[in-house]
Amino acid sequence: MNIVCLDMEGVLVPEIWVAFSKTSGIPELKRTTRDEPDYDKLMRWRMQILREHGLGLKEIQDVISKIDPLPGAKEFVDRLRAETQVIVLSDTFSQFAQPLMKKLGWPTIFCNELVVGDDGMLEGIKMRCEHSKLTTVRGLQSIGFDTIAAGDSFNDLEMLQASKAGFLFRSTEQIKKDYPQFPTYEEYDDLFDAIMAVLN
């Protein structure tokens, strides 16, 4: 029994914070998990910048509503789901992910929750569990699944390492250099073929 675990941002949809950085004109918010391995530190920093600029959940959701999946992503997910089970594992938040999952045809996603104040400002985060991607992969393995994982960032590396097969997709040159054990792909057709080779 196999299950494919996919990262969301950078693999299926554009980076939400990069898009918000462009729209808001706040260049510091371009920093993502490709740049900062410590997700908790990254989110605390983001929330501080948002508060300094008086920006809350509504402003972020307005930007997300205009984001479309990466070209070919929905077709890739549809092809995969016709062959095997697929779960999107993301460190994003349900308040961000829902409109994007709709555009991807509603694949299953495991993500986190934002704590939002009455004023609409982001006050904190509720992580589903520690090391959520790794923990989820191990949980799936404990109930009889072999996992195949694909991601692009530092926070994907644990699930790639723990899986039967792990692939980097459109990752940074530094991550590709530091983790040469993971085959790297730039196109969905090539990633699909690599996953199918493991499945078969």
Overview of the structural elements:
This protein is of the alpha/beta class and 200 residues long. It has a domain at 2-12 and 70-112 and 127-199: 3-Layer(aba) Sandwich (Rossmann fold). The protein is 44% helix and 20% strand. Strands 4-3-2-1-5-6-7 form a 7-stranded mixed beta sheet, with helices on both faces. Helix 3 packs parallel to helix 5 and helix 4 packs parallel to helix 9. The longest helix has 14 residues, at 39-52.
Write a brief structural summary.
This protein has helices at 16-24, 39-52, 57-64, 73-83, 94-103, 132-142, 157-162, 173-178, 188-199; strands at 2-6, 85-93, 108-116, 122-126, 146-151, 165-169, 184-185. The chain is of the alpha/beta class.
Residue share in β-strands:
15-25%
CATH topology name of one domain, in short, is Rossmann fold
The low-pLDDT segments are none
CATH class of one domain: Alpha Beta
Q: Order of strands across the widest beta sheet?
A: 4-3-2-1-5-6-7
H/E series:
EHHHHEHEEHEHEHEH
Total number of strands: 7
The CATH architecture of one domain comes to 3-Layer(aba) Sandwich
Give Rg in angstroms. 17 Å
Q: Report how far apart the termini are.
A: 11 Å
